[in-house]
Amino acid sequence: MVLTAEALVRAEIVVEGDVQGVGFRYFVRRAARRLGVKGFVENLESGAVKIVAEASKERVEKLVEKIKSAPPPIAVDEITVTYSKPTGEFKTFKIVVKDLAEEMVEGFATGASYFEIMFEKQDKALVKLDTLIERQDLMLVKQDLMLQKQDQMLGKMDLMLEKQDLMLEKQDQMLHKQDQMLEKMDVTLEKQGQMLLTQDQMLLKQDQMLGKMDIMLEKQDSTLQKQDQMLSKMDLMVEKHDEMLERQDMLVDEVKGLRRDVSFLIEDRITRIERDVAEIKARLGITG
């Protein structure tokens, strides 16, 4: 007989492994009913589980795949499948129940297995929370270092301002000296007025003085150019200073936002843990 995916078949499936006392039969019944498979599942004295299923071969194979990937605490080691002709005797898929006391013991064992898995997952979650808290501590340490560096930057900026004040003082001194030079030039002009009476004798000296004055004017022009350069550099310094202040403001905002996010995350995780612990205590009947 050639079996196709559309033809009905009868499959006797024997599953070995950790499949009794872990809720395996209920898992098989739920999967079979969802797939439209009819038959039954029962425990064997050997510790294995027997499944008789009637449906299309495609659905039976899907049921076998689901059994292979059954979740913990179920552990499937080996599956044996034997096909035969269907009898049509089943109207649904059910669990064959034998001794009531044995079923109750198996039910308690199943519950204990799931509690054990739940406790293991909670332990893993607590380990991850500890790791998260450690990383948050490292973040706080790095933030403290950032604040220290910002303090150092502020100190250097204060030094820059002090030097700028010194530069302004020196410029004031330069202006004062230029005023003195102008006063002296006025005195020179007065003397030149007095020396007009002896122009013939002083022409040569006046020519010399004019040459020196030209040199003085050139030096003044050079001084003015340097002052212009100083002003340009001061403008650049002011622009960079403004840019540094803007970046510091952005950094402060980011740090504040990060602290708020971290605080909210910790409070939310603690609330979840307390709620999970309360639910576990309630299920276990523990008060206090």
Automatic annotation (TrEMBL):
Pfam families: Acylphosphatase. Residues 10-97 form the Acylphosphatase-like domain. PROSITE patterns: ACYLPHOSPHATASE_1, ACYLPHOSPHATASE_3, T_SNARE. The active site is at 25, 43. Gene3D superfamilies: 3.30.70.100. GO terms for molecular function: acylphosphatase activity. Belongs to the acylphosphatase family. This is acylphosphatase. It comes from Caldiarchaeum subterraneum. The lineage of its organism: Archaea, Nitrososphaerota, Candidatus Caldarchaeales, Candidatus Caldarchaeaceae, Candidatus Caldarchaeum.
